[in-house]
Amino acid sequence: MEADDDVPLILTCDEANSGLLGEDADRGDENGGGGNYDIVNNVVIPTPGPQNYRTQNVSLQQSWEMNYQEAAIYLQEGENNDKFFTHPRNPKALAAYLFAHNHLFYMMELLTGLLLMVLSLCEAPAVPSLRLDVYVHATLELLALVMVAFELCMKLRWLGFHTFIRHKRTMVKTCVLLLQFVEAIVVLIRQTSHLRVTRALRPIFLVDCRYCGAVRRNLRQIFQSLPPFIDILLLLLFFMVIFAILGFCLFSMNTADPYFTTLENSLVSLFVLLTTANFPDVMMPSYSKNRWSCVFFIVYLSIELYFVMNLLLAVVFDTFNDVEKTKFKSLLLHKRSAVDHAFQLLVSRQRPMGVSLKQFDGLMRFYRPRMSARDRFLTYKALNSSSASMLSLQDFYKFYEVIGLKWKARRIREHWFDDLPHTTFLIFKGINLIVKSKAFQYTMYAVVAINGVWILVETYSLNSGFSWSRFVPWSYIVFLTIYGVEVLLKVTGLGPTAYFSSGWNLFDFSVTVFAFLGLIALAFDMEPFYFIVVLRPFQLLRLFKIKRRYCNVLDTMFELFPRMASLGLTLIIFYYSFAIVGMEFFADVVYPNCCNTSTVADSYRLTNVTIGNKTVLEEGYYYLNNFNNILSSFVTLFELTVVNNWYITMEGVTSMTTHWSRLYFMTFYIVTMVVMTIIVAFILDAFVFRMNYSRKNRDVVENPEDENGIVFEVEVSRDEALTTLELYKQTCPGSFSINSLQKVLQDMDRSGHTSLVYLGRRSRTKSDLSMKMYVEEIQEWYAEFTEENLPQPDQILEQNLDSLVPEPLPS
Amino acid sequence: MEADDDVPLILTCDEANSGLLGEDADRGDENGGGGNYDIVNNVVIPTPGPQNYRTQNVSLQQSWEMNYQEAAIYLQEGENNDKFFTHPRNPKALAAYLFAHNHLFYMMELLTGLLLMVLSLCEAPAVPSLRLDVYVHATLELLALVMVAFELCMKLRWLGFHTFIRHKRTMVKTCVLLLQFVEAIVVLIRQTSHLRVTRALRPIFLVDCRYCGAVRRNLRQIFQSLPPFIDILLLLLFFMVIFAILGFCLFSMNTADPYFTTLENSLVSLFVLLTTANFPDVMMPSYSKNRWSCVFFIVYLSIELYFVMNLLLAVVFDTFNDVEKTKFKSLLLHKRSAVDHAFQLLVSRQRPMGVSLKQFDGLMRFYRPRMSARDRFLTYKALNSSSASMLSLQDFYKFYEVIGLKWKARRIREHWFDDLPHTTFLIFKGINLIVKSKAFQYTMYAVVAINGVWILVETYSLNSGFSWSRFVPWSYIVFLTIYGVEVLLKVTGLGPTAYFSSGWNLFDFSVTVFAFLGLIALAFDMEPFYFIVVLRPFQLLRLFKIKRRYCNVLDTMFELFPRMASLGLTLIIFYYSFAIVGMEFFADVVYPNCCNTSTVADSYRLTNVTIGNKTVLEEGYYYLNNFNNILSSFVTLFELTVVNNWYITMEGVTSMTTHWSRLYFMTFYIVTMVVMTIIVAFILDAFVFRMNYSRKNRDVVENPEDENGIVFEVEVSRDEALTTLELYKQTCPGSFSINSLQKVLQDMDRSGHTSLVYLGRRSRTKSDLSMKMYVEEIQEWYAEFTEENLPQPDQILEQNLDSLVPEPLPS
Q1: Which of A42, A449, A806, B637 is deepest in the core (most CB within 10 A)?
Q2: Hey, are the CB atoms on B462 and A557 less than 8 Å from each other?
Q3: Cβ within 8 Å of residue A744, ≥6 positions away
Q4: Structure pTM?
């Protein structure tokens, strides 16, 4: 397709250039997007320095390979939103970069991070069944820390000392690492744990690892929302102080009122009141004296709870909205800049305006080593919208949209059983028609509904209490049989692949399988698995398929799931830090019948009490909400998050320690408030966004099942396939992946078609939705971005081509 | 200015025409906006019927007057968003309309509505101090009902029987009225009150009155948000039922666990758990048996509380957004259509394209009878942007923007003391400079801050408790003196009018005055006013002026206030209905030491209890949360709204009545959840809208103080004023309001200028903001609207002029 002696426009292997390129990209990135065309200016003067790792007699082939690799790295950086100033600049850095950028390394990072966090299960206030000796867990910790240190060394080699120092996150990590090292060694020497609050910093190792990018993004978003949040928080606290003074002046004369005796008490009461956790109680003593005192509380709650707190949500929501858009913009421009960089590395000096298949394939071999030759070719075809012989820069900009596609030949057969003998075909066809009919669907809905009512009535009639042995009524078996038959019919009628490609079918299938497992568990008396039986009612969720809005809601729920999970993880990381601090200070401070000096003694009581003339066991249970080990701490912290009655835990702990403990609980409340507000803002934003989107694109929503992804169509003719196969045989003769291309030819031969249509699919991401929503703004951004980077790329390229220093062309 | 024998294009006084006009407008309004140009078609065939109230010899002057009046009515209908099908059609209707549309009548409506509601303070379970005998309050009620009936009769006369029947709200009101009548008479005859749950419908009379339009709008918005809300609510309840079955199966074997003994118990526990009111408690018995049971509760809360509840907010917020925009659109188009109608009535047959000052003035005399001649003239000038001799339809469309302006001559003098003698002038000038200096402002901020810290420290040191007698420390007097001096300086330096025109200054002033009053109260031992003294800390709010964001927040808060108040009123109306139902069923059911059979007996206990070997008074106080009279009911309902510990009240009442009582409490929870979600959505929407707005118009926010309103500028020359005066003297010679125009001339003479500039100001409303935000969409709406109403107004007018039936022109 093109001459074999094409010379790369840019010679990556040239250190000076590569370095400068990195510097440029960095500078460009700082002022809003990579300044990429300067590179071309810089390439003009290749200054071979001492670190120059390209020998003059490097072959043209090797030059290209190096360009491919660098372009692949740029595209990876674009994908991962790595800043270009961390781009590797010399062979050592490159080796370190490659070492530190593969799934094995990421896995190691993740595991060490997890190991360090999991250690707290076994350390000092350990979960009883998991307790380890000090020397065991301290050694494990040291081991993990050495691993982290090793990872940091690799990073240092890749980034170089200068960049390493400038990279804030890494520096913090290094400091924490040193501290932990020292502490671990101290623990090992003293053979006992000291007050190790710094363990609360351990999540840093987890957060820093590649797979936790989403958590890092969440944390960044939380920090970005903080300034306006804090402003409103101050307003909140200000009103609280004013009302505390008022409350103290108004109610401290009432000796029966324990809530306003001192200013501090008054403040704490109003803080708790803000969370409503003590509400009618805090009002009651004064209310019983004077009915008008309720005005104070009503005004306070109206201002603080119903106004300022909502204001907080509004401000966070607004910031969130804004940040989401800015983030989307900068990601988009970063990717565009990465594509620019890669494009410059892939074009040849002879044809600077386009990337040929050969170069593209070279890139892909580095970028996605496991991709088959067929898929590489199809990706190229998908990019090449104008069907020209080369990819233009405009084509290449679609790179990230196309790269995730899963390719499949368009099915020629309608059903999976089309090839079977006629009688069998008819049977299956029949089943297929039944399964697809409305009547069948609605019958199943009816069965599910009847099942639901049945379970309800059955459970309701078990007034005397529930016991497992009685709980295999015939209805269970009947309904299970019906569901089993339904699954079988559907699988045979639609074919397994079609059946399992729908989320709802998967759900049906797994619920049915679970019900079967439950039955087996009951039959074989496996008590710990009894709970599976009670999961049956989830079958009822199927009923929500009927109504449109629920489908939308549930779909959105599933779309949101990854993001929600990462938010949950963020919350858990905060929990972890607080749990460690809590354990260090409050382990074993509460126990049954403690806290007798506090107002909440009742909740901690475990004793026989005489009321009137009756004696009863009064069990307060709150001693269970303790910080005795990390699991208990997590449950306690969840209870504090839910906020109700949290002051009982606070007062209990406070009465057994000092009143400074309240600071811990109040800080925790405020931190969870921030995270929760962010979560609410996120859900709000996601749903409102989706609803706006579906309002804008009514047509798309009409077929939610069909259109729930991005689809590309590529037609491959026999000639094309042959030429490509030849090309591939030339470039990488021994490669196994060529088989996939040969299979394409075989498929064509077998079906007798001269061309095959391939469909590339992927699920739609929020980014795709944003692309559609902001379609006008995006053009503006691009325009700004190009303006900032001054002259048009094409012009510059042409200008510089003339002034390029002629390279010695190896034959 | 124009010939005196101008003939109105449309003759209102012609009944058939007027009737048709009304019908048309009605039809047009139903399909999205009034169809106004058909009117012109219909006028072609005046069909004098029996009700025709225009005698042939009616004078031209009278014709015009009638047109003015009808135009004024149209504009009023546009302003109040009254549908045009309620437009009066004949002289009787007109009389009734005029009778029913003035502030006296509105006031009467409001007062009867309020009287009926206030009656419940004195009826059966009455507030002790306000109890009235049965015959007294029943007679009062009958009286109020007769008033309502009278109002309804007036409405019937105005609307006509047919429209009256079709008007749903009025029909409901009539039915409720009849019911109340019957019940009131029954009460009067039996001399005792029966179970009068229907009193819960009384708010209808209040809601229906003119001044409660905002409440009606809120209610409509709530009902519009209901369908999606109910959908998600079902999802919520569905999950609740599934988890209730699960919970029953898992925990009912634990005899120590009172929360899951039966399916009903299980459902109630999970409903309460949704509100988090029983949180750690509901988990504790099972958690103490098996630590893993916390998973059940965590999963339940994560799904229901943190996901579905937020979804609810998202859906309501989205619907709210949508409804706000639709409402704005329909209001805008309704107003436009009203202006169209009015314009047609004001143009003369000779000059159908414009409204002259004379006609405009005629209109204004009906539309704003109390407006002075000067203001009428200035309004005309403000509308007349092209300075042509007549107002075009386009000019006239601005009617509603201009009508609310308050006119003032631009001040020629800079300070209020410019006219004083030189020495005095210098003194005041000095004060003015001091007061305006940054140094003075920041000194005052410092004083306020010091005062704040002082109060805090002082209150904190009062650890032994607070008592009034000790509470006039010297610091109070010192700071008060400083504030007093500040107020004096500012008033003298800026002049009273300038000083009091700023909201912040008003705030300062009132806080200072209150502090003085407090001091006087202390000095003269007026105990009930002591609370004024403790309001001092509110002075600290002034500190929030320093930071931009707070200014914005507080400004928005004040802007939102009317709307918030109406939402609060809506909530109170719901409260009222629930309070009546609660009083009818639960009055006097809880009392100290009641509810011994329930799990919450502790909270109702008022007894001596022996714990270990100590005897203490245990006071549960919850017997105070009762439905014994309407005020107690309101407080109880507020506590239920805040949700914390609401189940104690519920369980207490339930244990003394039947378990169906729970339905009342759960319904109330869901209703308040709807209203509260709407409130949150409203605050979110308002703030996000404002922030978006200020992001779009950075410049406006730069000068928030200056630009916080709409300003129109009109220059009046001496000649114009003279001509207008002449015109006015002709049209309404005896009118007192002409004086205002004469004063304009006097002002000109005194100042020696040949022209004066007048400024019209009004505060900016949400509608103004919306106008700016949706500026592009509005053009589209107008275009659609005009299209729907077919040919261009100008063309139609000209076409129809030719075919107009010639009217006999009285000389």
Answers
A1: B637
A2: no
A3: A374, A716, A721, A756
A4: 0.83
